[in-house]
DNA sequence: TCATTAGTCTATTAAAATGGTAGGGAATAT
DNA sequence: ATATTCCCTACCATTTTAATAGACTAATGA
């Protein structure tokens, strides 16, 4: 399951996407509109900014905004950023790979199946963008 | 990611499947062969027994054994049993469904995408059995 | 320049989940 | 009877999750 953090990130990002024309959006506005704890959301948006997904502006008229158009922001990237691996096992993770301790991957049947699950999952997540989860698209 | 509990369960179950002909297998044997903490494994096997996947026998000559042939033990079932939902969001889970608080599912784009992910994942997990993850099959 | 606005950063906290341990109790075979 | 083996309840330590607090920095504009 995705963490609340990631779920909130999606809420916030879609809000930003749906209001792109309005210029920078206040954290507090997103917090109110999408019912997310203000301080928690602060952390999340900051993290998204540091990863190059969002831009920000301080002072009056400031706020957060998308740096790239929604169709260029992949869902897999967001999940990996905030939740870590998408794969079900460390030994089949593409981005967070860790070797199995007690089984030889080459002959491990689980490895094969879980790789297949990963591929099927990524087939969706890597090819869908923020744009695909907006209300109007 | 699957918890250690679930990963250990798979290790134990494949061991049991690969040694079905030997009659009941001791927890301690599985623990040693698959390098799993004995006491932790006890809990796991007990849980699998209570769910009707394993049978057990006490006293000398006792141990755990598969009740059904490996090809009838689905991977999705084992994961759900020990780790809970397979879906990435509560509102798209088939077995552990929970309503979204702050979004209307009918018009929620995330809901659509995550349902697709779930279906793609289940397409693999529901159609693969313990037999498919054994070394010799 | 100075007050206001708004993001940045570090630390803390409470609760839950995870992974593992301890130690009897109950059933069974010999 | 007794050794064997699973059964059961409780407990514990650590990590993760979700959220909060508060001070700091940067930008704006009157």
TrEMBL record, chains A, B:
Keywords noted in UniProt: DNA-binding
Pfam families listed in its UniProt record: Rrf2
NCBIfam families found in the cross-reference section: rrf2_super
Record's protein name: Rrf2 family transcriptional regulator
GO-annotated molecular function: DNA binding; DNA-binding transcription factor activity
Record has DNA-binding as a keyword: yes
Gene3D superfamilies noted in UniProt: Winged helix-like DNA-binding domain superfamily/Winged helix DNA-binding domain
GO cellular component: cytosol
